[in-house]
Amino acid sequence: MCQGGNGENVGGFPLKCSEICSILELMEHNRCGPKCDVCGLLQSVRGVRRPARVVAQSEAMQQVLRRAARFAPTDAPVVVLGETGSGKEVVARVLHQNSARSTKSLIAVNVAALPAELLESELFGHAKGAFTGATQARPGLFSEADGGTLFLDEIAELPMPLQPKLLRALQDGEIRRVGDSRSFAVDVRIVCATHRDLAERVRTGHFREDLYYRLKVLTLKVPPLRQRGQDILPLARSFLAEENHATATGFSKSATTRLIEYPWPGNVRELQNAVRHGAALSRGEAIEEQDLPEELQRRPAAAPAELVSLADAERSHILAVLAACGDSQSEAARVLGIGRNTLWRKLRRYDSLGAGSL
Known about the structure:
Low-confidence stretches: 3-32
Mean pLDDT: 82
Shape: elongated
Radius of gyration: 23 Å
Largest sheet: 5 strands, parallel
Strand content: 5-15%
Structural class: alpha/beta
Helix content: 25-40%
Distance between the termini: 24 Å
Strand order of the largest sheet: 4-5-8-3-9
C-alpha cells in the first residue's frame, strides 16, 4: 500500500510495490493478504461490488493511513473530513477492514440523499403499521450493522429531529424503531464523514453540540488530490486496469502530462471519471490527450506577471513531473520523453543553481 520497490507492468507502466498492493483483491471473506510495512494496514479493503483500491504513494496520504492504523482497533467513533470525492468512504472501509469488526458488515448510507421521514425509518427501522404502507416490521440499518460498522456519509446534513436519536444510540447503545414502544440494544461502531465544517454547523445552530463532541472522538482528514500529486498516476493506472473492455493499456506522454498538471477540483472521483472517459474514446493502446475530457485539454492562459523564460518554464515543469512521479528519475524521464542521463544532468544543474533538490 505504502512501501516502495520495483514491480510488474500494469497499464503500460512499471508499477512499484505500493501500486501493486493497491490493486490486490480480496477474493474471500477471510483472505485479507499481508499488511503494509509502512502503515500496518491491510493492502486491500472490501467494497460493495469489488475490493476498494488503496493508493498512497504521497506522504500526505501515508500519514492519513498511519493515523488510521492507530484508530482501527478501537471502537471509538471517527469523523472523516475531506472535500467531496477525495476518498472518505475508502478510508472508512480501511478502518472497518482493519478492525475486530471486519467479519461483520459495514453498512454505508448518505444521510443527505434521503428525506428526514424516510431517513429515520432507514436508520432505525419501523414497527408494523407505524405508517401507511408499513405492512411489516423492518429492522433498519443500525440493526443490520450490529456487530459491525455504520458509515454515515454527509453527517452534517443529518436533520435536527434525528440528531437526538443518533445521540441516544451512541450514548446508550439502544435504538427505538419508528412506531415501536420498545428499545433494542445494538453494538455498532459509527464512522461518519463530511465535507463541511462541523464546528461551524454547531455555531450556526444546525448541529447539536453534544452530538458533535460525541462523534468527534477521533478525526481523520483526507487531503484533496491536488495536495497528493504522487498519487495521481498510480490511481489513474489502477482505474484504467478496471476498465475491462478498454483497448488502451496506458497513457500517452501528453495525456500523462495533462493528468499531472490538472488541479482536480473533483478529486479522486473526477480522476476516475476522466480515465473512464479516456478509456471509452481511445482506439489505440494508449489514451491520448484528445481522449480526455475537454476540461483537461484546456490549458489556462498565463497571466502577464507569470511570464517566464523558456529555461525557467522547463525547470518548473521538470521538477513538477519529478515530484508527481514520487522522485523516481526513471519514471520522470519516461514521462518527459528524455533519457535518464539527460534528466540527471538537468537536475544537477538546477541543484547547483539552488533551484531545487535531488
